[in-house]
Each structure stands twice: as structure tokens, then as C-alpha cells.
Design brief:
The chain is of the alpha+beta class and 322 residues long. Helix content is 29%, strand content 29%. The strands form 4 sheets. Strands 1-2-12-9 form a 4-stranded antiparallel β-sheet. The chain has a 4-stranded antiparallel β-sheet with strand order 3-8-4-6, covered by helices on one side. The protein has a two-stranded antiparallel sheet with strand order 5-7. A hairpin with a 6-residue loop joins strand 10 and strand 11. It is flat and about 80 Å long.
Length: 322
């Protein structure tokens, strides 16, 4: 009688910190394959909107057309509706041209310098045909103005610089923004950084620690390049103050061995517990980035499950036909 082993897990998430562009959370009761799959999907497979086609009408600036087109593509755009948009290659409304309301957003830029002062052409000069898709810095500026925030500096209010113009120079263009993923080009990646680390499990051998003098304890604590341990001023005992600051460098273990106290501390990585740090480019909120990544990962797993089912059905049919 065959016994089937179930590898089904029920991961749990605990949010530690959440801001619009930053999120820190714990992922527990799963393994490294799932944690890494989630990280890779967040970086490369969550869709956003970015400028993909640029038609230059007039360009008398010092930068050539290709340079300007590349710079425009790297301007992050608000992409809250990207999951609901169509990929241009799959759009049946425009036959894949990528120039319709379902799969693209049109931008225009028309700037001419008529003064002796150098004119900065920035993302603020881009005019979008869709109010929900604008440069991220403009959305942040609008939000700051609504909340009467004074933290938004004057330098940031200028927007992202595209090119500088002198008297008589002009830049006029039309740009099409389309849905895409970071796997195709980095300009579509919604993540600035996504990292995860194993949660460390630190145990101090109190009996061995008591055999050290106060100076030896301080020397052992200082051997760690990060502030993981400290000395309790009341009891004189070594305590763990920030286990997550540990970088798996083994310095405290080497120091204990050099002092003739092997086994003074035991540090292990919890194989089923991970701490994620997610920073967004601003195209979508960090929390939405995580949720969208889970949706994309679920779709990919459903596709694999469906493919396996179809292959099994085909094998059964082939066996039946002989």
C-alpha cells in the first residue's frame, strides 16, 4: 500500500511596518522556494505602465532622439490600474498596435525655451491623456499639497529632469505608455529593492557566559560588526538586543573560539521563517506590490496545475487508444 506525502503548507504573514513606498513583513511556515518565488515575481512579473513608444516631432536639444526616448521610458508612472489593463500584444481592440484606451496611455510634451536662462524640461511637462496615469513625482507632489506637507522640498517639485534647453531650442513629442513587466525591461519593474533573510535563532550559553569577566564580555560583544548583543547595565549579563541585525558573519562564534569558549553562543537560521523588506519605485504602493505578486504567483501555479491535468488526460487517452 502506497502512502502519499503531502507537501501542502499554509504560510502566514505578519506585517511589521507599512508605508506607501516601504513594507516590512514576516513570512512564516513555508520554505525558501516559496519565499524566493515571491521575491522574483515582485521584481520581474508584477505589471506596471511605462513609456514604450516615442514619436519625436521636433528636437533641437543637445540630446539625440534615442537618448530622450530612453530617459522617458525610465520615468516611473502611477500604475494602480495596470493589473486591469491589457498587454498590447494581447489586445484585440487595436490588433496589437498598442495604441488604444484598453492597453495604452498617450502623453504629449511641447516645450520651447525663449529666454536666456537654461530651461529644465522635466516630468512635470508631460501631459497625460489619462488622469490616473501620471509621473510618480507629480502624484507625490499633489498628495503633499493636499496634506499641506512641508517636507516636500523645492528641488523635488521640479520633477525628473529629461533634458535642458537653451534659447531657441525646442522639444515636441508624443509618447505611448504600455503595460509590461520587469522581465521584459527594467523600466516596468515596480520594485526598487526586494530582499528577504532567514530569521536568526540565537541562544547564549549562560553558564559559559558567566565564566567571562566584564571586559571579556565587552570584547566579545564588540566583535560583532552589527549591534546584535549588549550588556545589561543592571545585571551585567549579555543580552540579545536585535537578532535581525545579525548578518551570519560568524564573527562572535570565531571570537568565542579564540577565547577558548566554543559553544558560547549558538546561532541557527529558522528554515521556515523569513523577513521581507520591499521598497517600491512609487508606481504602485509597496503593500499593493505584495498583493499583486501573490495574484500573479497564484495565476502561474493555476497554469501549471491546468497543464498537468491536460497532460494526464492526454496520457490516459493515449493509453486507451493503445
Amino acid at each position: 500500500m502506497e502512502t502519499t506525502v503531502s507537501y501542502q503548507r499554509f504560510p502566514k504573514v505578519r506585517i511589521r511596518e507599512m508605508k506607501d513606498e516601504y513594507c516590512k513583513f514576516e513570512l512564516r511556515e513555508t520554505d525558501a522556494s516559496m519565499a524566493n518565488a515571491l521575491r522574483r515575481v515582485m521584481i520581474a512579473e508584477v505589471p506596471t505602465v511605462a513609456i514604450d513608444l516615442v514619436e519625436i516631432e521636433v528636437n533641437s536639444s543637445v540630446l539625440n532622439d534615442e537618448f530622450i526616448a530612453h530617459r522617458l521610458g525610465l520615468i516611473p508612472l502611477t500604475s494602480d490600474n495596470a493589473m486591469r489593463m491589457r498587454f498590447s500584444r494581447d489586445c484585440d481592440s487595436c490588433d496589437g498596435d498598442g495604441q488604444c484606451e484598453f492597453c495604452s496611455v498617450e502623453f504629449h510634451l511641447n516645450v520651447c525655451c525663449d529666454s536666456d536662462q537654461t530651461l529644465d524640461v522635466t516630468s512635470a511637462d508631460l501631459r497625460s491623456a489619462e488622469a490616473s496615469v501620471i509621473p510618480v513625482d507629480l502624484a507625490v507632489k499633489a498628495l503633499a499639497m493636499e496634506s499641506s506637507s512641508t517636507s516636500y522640498e523645492a528641488a523635488e517639485q521640479r520633477g525628473i529632469i529629461i533634458v535642458k534647453l537653451r534659447r531657441g531650442q525646442e522639444l515636441r513629442l508624443r509618447a505611448i505608455a504600455r503595460k509590461g513587466i520587469g522581465k521584459d525591461h527594467a523600466k516596468w519593474s515596480p520594485a526598487a529593492t526586494v530582499t528577504f533573510m532567514y530569521e536568526p535563532d540565537i541562544h547564549i550559553n549562560e553558564d559559559l557566559m558567566e565564566t567571562l569577566s566584564l571586559d571579556e564580555k565587552r570584547a566579545w560583544i564588540e566583535s560583532s560588526p552589527t549591534k546584535v548583543f549588549d550588556l545589561d547595565p543592571n545585571t551585567g549579563q549579555v543580552v540579545v538586543v536585535d537578532p535581525e541585525a545579525y548578518t551570519y558573519d560568524d564573527e562572535v562564534i570565531k571570537k568565542a573560539e579564540a577565547m577558548g569558549k566554543p559553544g558560547l553562543v549558538e546561532i541557527n537560521a529558522k528554515e521556515d521563517s523569513f523577513i521581507f523588506t520591499v521598497e517600491s519605485t512609487g508606481a504602485i504602493k509597496a503593500s499593493q506590490l505584495v498583493l499583486n505578486a501573490i495574484d500573479v504567483l497564484r495565476q502561474k501555479l493555476d497554469a501549471v496545475r491546468l497543464q498537468d491535468a491536460e497532460e494526464n488526460d492526454f496520457s490516459e487517452l493515449k493509453a486507451h487508444l493503445g
